[in-house]
Description:
The complex is a heterotrimer.
Chain A: H1 2-28, H2 33-62, H3 85-114, H4 124-158, H5 167-175, H6 177-186, H7 209-238, H8 251-283, H9 295-329, H10 336-350, H11 368-377, H12 379-393, H13 402-425, H14 427-433, H15 437-467, H16 473-500, H17 514-529, H18 531-544, E1 575-577, E2 592-594
Antiparallel strand pairs in A: 1-2
Helix pairs in contact in A: 1-2, 2-7, 3-4, 3-5, 3-17, 4-7, 4-8, 4-9, 4-15, 5-7, 6-7, 7-8, 8-9, 8-10, 9-10, 9-12, 9-13, 9-15, 10-12, 12-13, 13-15, 13-16, 15-16, 16-17, 16-18
Chain B: H1 14-44, H2 54-79, H3 83-114, H4 120-150, H5 160-186
Helix pairs in contact in B: 1-4, 1-5, 2-3, 2-5, 3-4, 4-5
Chain C: H1 2-20, H2 30-63, H3 81-111, E1 120-127, E2 130-135, E3 140-142, E4 148-152, E5 156-163, E6 170-174, E7 179-183, E8 189-194, E9 199-200, E10 208-211, E11 223-229, H4 231-242
Parallel strand pairs in C: 1-5, 4-11
Antiparallel strand pairs in C: 1-2, 2-3, 5-8, 6-7, 6-10, 9-11, 10-11
Helix pairs in contact in C: 1-2, 2-3
Amino acid sequence: xxxxRGVIYAAIGFxxxxxxxxxxxxxxxxxxxxxxxxxxxxxxxxxxLMGVGMWKIWGREWFGKSTVNDPTGGWExxxxxxxxxxxxxxxxxxxxxxxFLLAGLLAMGLRAELADSGQNVFTKNTYNxxxxxxxxxxIAVAVAAVMGGFSNYVLPLIIGAEDVAxxxxxxxxxxxxxxxxxxxLLTPLFGGFDFGWTAYPPLATQAPIGGLLFELAFLxxxxxxxxxxxxxxxxxxTQRAPGMTWGRMPIxxxxxxxxxIISLTAxxxxxxxxxxxxxxxxxNMVFFSPPGGNALLYEHIFWFYSHPAVxxxxxxxxxxxxxxxxxxxxxxxxxxxxxxxxFAAIVALSFVVWAHHLxxxxxxxxxxxxxxxxTELISIPTGIIFLSALGTVWRSKLRLKVxxxxxxxxxxxxxxxGLTGIFLADVATDxxxxxxxxxxxxxxxxIMGGEMFAIFAAGYYWFPKITGRMYNETLGRxxxxxMFILYNITFLVMFIPGTVGMNRRVAEYxxxxxxxxxxxxxxxxxxxxxxxxxxxxxxxxxxxxxKAPDNPxxxxxxxxQTSSPPPxxxxxxxxxxxxxPYGYGDESVVHARFGKSSPSxxxxxxxxx
Amino acid sequence: MTIHVPNVNxxxxxxxxxxxxxxxxxxxxxxxxxxxxxxxVFVSGTSTPDEINQVLGLSLTVLLLLxxxxxxxxxxxxxxxxxxxxxxxxxxxxxxxxxxxxxxxYEWYEALQHFPPSTGFGTVLFTLTGVHVTHVATGxxxxxxxxxxxxxxxxxxxxxxxxxGAVKWWHFVDVAWVxxxxxxxxxx
Amino acid sequence: xxxxxxxxxxTVVAEFALLSLNLFGDAATxxxxxxxxxxxxLMALAIPVFTFVVTMIGYVVIKFRADGDELEDxxxxxxxxxxxxxxxxxxxLLTIVVIIYPGYVGVQELRExxxxxxxxxxxxxxxxWQWSYEYEGRAVSLFAKxxxxxxxxxxxxxxxxxSEDQDVIHSFWIPAFRMKIDAVPGLTTKFDVNTTKIGNxxxxxxxxxxxxELCGRDHSLMxxxxxxxxxxxxxxxxxxxxx
Lengths: 609, 188, 243
Ligand code: HEM
Ligand SMILES: [Cu+2]
Ligand SMILES: [Cu+2]
C-alpha cells in the first residue's frame, strides 16, 4: 500500500513541478523538456517520500500535528518508510542485490560484445550506454551495500545501541535510493547516456535526456550517502553502550566511522559536479566549454569526491574483513591500535590525492609530483591492514568456514589490486596505462576483489543473525571456489590487453587482441554463473534453512549476544561493556555483561508513548 | 497497535544529539560551499566586471548581517522564555530574509543585461547566488515553520531545539554569504 | 622457517619468469623505453610483496587449521613490537624508493627535452571522431581520416594537442610511443618524444594514434595509422606533399 501511495504521490508531484516549469519556460521561451524533468523530479521525490510513509511519521510534525510510528509488523514492514535500522539494512541489501545482479547481466553483455574484435552484439551507442549503466549501478552497490546495508544492520548492534541516532533520517536515506534505481533503468528509453560513470563534460552536457536522468540519479544518491554518513557518525559518538570506550570499540565500527567522515564531506563535491552539468544543460551556463569554461574544473571536482569514495567502499570492507578474520581465527585482531591509526591516516590522505586521476589530463605540470608522492604514501597505512590480517591468522586456530574463506580472498585479491595501483600512481607508467584495460583490471581487483568479496564474507557471516537461519555450508564453499577461481582468471588476464595497447570503453578493437579477450569473456561468463549457487543458497536457506542459534560462531561482539534475529531495539537487557571484543584465549577480558547495571525500564519498547 | 517513538539513548539527551546532528550537517554543507567557491576562479579567473552593482552587493551583505543579529536575539529570548520578544525577532529575521531574496532578484535582473548565464562571470554569479538564495529560502521556510509552531504557546519547552536549530541554520547561511560576497564582488 | 623458504623460492621463480617474459615488445621512443623499464622495476618490487602475502595465506591455511567442532582459542598475541616496527620500516622504505625512482626521476626524464628545440612540431586537433595534424613550418596538414601520420625516426618530436571549441575531450595516445595526453577544448597540451625505432601500423597495431578518452559513439574508431621512417625519407615525403 505505501508503495502504491508513493507512486501516486510521485506522479502528482511530477505533474505539479512539471506544470510550474512549463509555465516558466513558456514565458521565457526556452526549450521546455529538461527544465520540466528537473523540477518535476524534485516534486516527485517529495511526493514519493511522503507517500511511502514519511508524512505520517515525520511530515505532520512540521505542522504541529501528532505523528504515528510503528516499525513492527510482518513482511509489509519492509515495504514502507520504516525507522528500524534492521529493517532498513535489509531494505538496502535486498534492493542492492537486485541492482548487483542486473549490473552483472549487463557485464555479461559487455563481455559478449568484447569476445571478438568486431561490432556485433550492440550498436556503438548501446554499448556505451550498457557499459556506463553497468559502471554506475555497480558503483552504487559498492558505495551503499556495506554502508547502507551491513552498517545499518550491524553497527547499532555491534556497539550495543537500540537504533541509530536519527532513525527517521535513516529511513529517508534509504527511500531516496529506489528513485535512483528507477531513473537509471529509465535512461535507455531516453537515449541512454554514453559518457561512462564519470560523466566528463562537455560530453555529458551534450548527451541526450538519458544523461540528465543519470545526473539527477547521482545527485539523489549523493544525498542518501551524505545523510547515511551523518547518521553513522552521530550514532557512534552518542549511542555506544555504557562502558564501550573508544579502545573497546569493534574494528568494524571504526571503519564505518572513517568511511562516514568521507561520505559526509566529500559527497557534496560530486553533488556540485552533477549540479554544474545540470545547470549547463538547463540554464546554458558555461562551466566547461570555451570561452570562459574549463573542462578540467569538472575533473578536479569529480575526483575530489570519487577518489575518497573508493575509501567509502573499501574501509568498511576492511573492517568487516578484519572482524571476521579475528572471530574465525579465534585470536585478537593483531595491532588493533595501528589499524585505527591507519584508518585515520587513510581518511586524511584520501582528500589530497585526487589529481592522480589527472596525470594525462593536461592539468598544471607542477601538480604531478606532489600528487604522486601523496598517493604513494597511502601504501604505508594500507600495508598496516595487511599486517593486521596476516598477524591475526599467524599461529591462530583457523576455522575455514565460508565467511573466512571470503575474508582471506580479500587479502589475496586486494594485494593484487593495491600493488597494481602503484603502477597507476607513478606518473611515468600511468601515462602509458591510463585509460587502458590495465585500469579496468586494477579497479575490478580493488572494488570487486576487495570490496565485493568482503561483502560476500559479511553476507555469509551475518546471514544467521539477519535471517535467524543457517545457510548451507557446502553450497557456500562451491560458490566460493567457483567465484574465486573464475574471478581471478577473468581479471588477471584482463591486465594483459591493457599493457599491450588496448584502451578501455571500446566496443571494437584491433583483432590482434582477440585471443586474450576471448579468454576473459569465457571466464567472465563462468563467473556470472558462479552466482547461481549463491542466489539459491540465500533464498532457500532464508525460507527453510535450519534455525540458527543466537551465536553460531561463538563470536564475542555484541550483535551475537542477542537473539537471531534481534528484537525491536536489539537487546532484551541492555549490555554494559567491560572489555574489548577480542578476548580470545584470555579469560580476563570480558566484552560485556548483561543485566546488572542497565535500567530494565529501557528493555521493552515503550508502549503507547 | 503499538505506537512507538524511538527510545533513544542512555547517555546523551535528545537536545545534545540533535545539536550534534545539526553541526555535522553544517560541516557537510560547508564542504559544498568550498566546492562552489573554488569553481569561481576556474570559470572566470579573478576578474570582476565593472558593471557589477557594488552598492547592491554591500547592502545585501549588511542586510544579512543585521538579520543574523535579530536571529541571535530570538534565540536568546527563547532561552529566557521571553516568548513575545522571540516571536518579534523571528518575524524581523524572516522579513529581512525576504527582502534579501528580492534584492538578489534585482541583482539577477541587472545581471541578465550585462552578464547572462551564458558568459563566464554570469555562470559564476548565477550559480553562487542561486545556490545561496536557495539556502536563504530554506532558512526562511524553517523559521516560518518554527514560528508557526510556537505562535500560540506560552513557554518554550520542547521547542527550544526548533528555535535554536533554525537560528543556527540562519547563521550558517549568513556566514556562507560572508565568503561569497568578496569572492564575487571584491576580487581584482 | 619453512614459510620463509617457500617465500624465497616463489619470489625467485616469479622474478625469473618476469625477466624472461617479453611483456609488451619494445617501445619506439626513448620516453617509452623509460616507462617500460619503470614498469618492469615496479613488477620486480611488487613480486616479493605479493609472494609474501600468498605464502602467508597458504601456509597459515594448511598449518593452523582447526576444523573440529570444539571452539578452541589461540594464544592471545595482540601485537608484537618488532614485527610492527619492521613492517613499518620496510613498507616506508619501499614507498620512498618508488617515489624517488621511477617516480620523481621519471617525471624529470619525461620533461628533460622541454627546453630543447624540437626537430619537428606537430599540432594535433581532435574532433568527433577524427584527428587532424599540422606539420608546423612545413606547409603540410593531414585532414582525412585514413591519412597516415608519417614521422621521422631519431628525432625530437613535439606534439601540441587540443580539441575544437564546441567539441569534447579526447586523448592523444600512441601506444608504441607509450605517451598520451588529453585533447581538451580551449586548452593546448603537449608532450615530447625522441623516436628510436622505425615502424608501421601494418606490422604493429601499436603504431597508431588512438583516442583514449571516451568521446561518444565512434570513440573506438577514432584512430590514425602511424608510420615512423628514416629522416631522409620523411623529408622526401614532406617535399612530395608540399608540391
Ligand atoms: C561479473 C563480473 C564483472 C565483469 C565481467 C565486468 C566487466 C566490465 C567491463 C567489460 C567493463 C567495461 C570496461 C571499460 O571498457 O572501461 C566494466 C566497467 C566497469 N565495471 Fe565491471 N565487471 C564486473 C563486475 C563489476 C563489479 C562487481 C563492479 C563494482 C562493484 C564493477 C564496476 C565497474 C565500473 C565502475 C566500471 C567502469 C564503467 C565506466 O568506465 O564508466 N564491475 N566492467
Ligand atoms: Cu583515486
Ligand atoms: Cu575518444
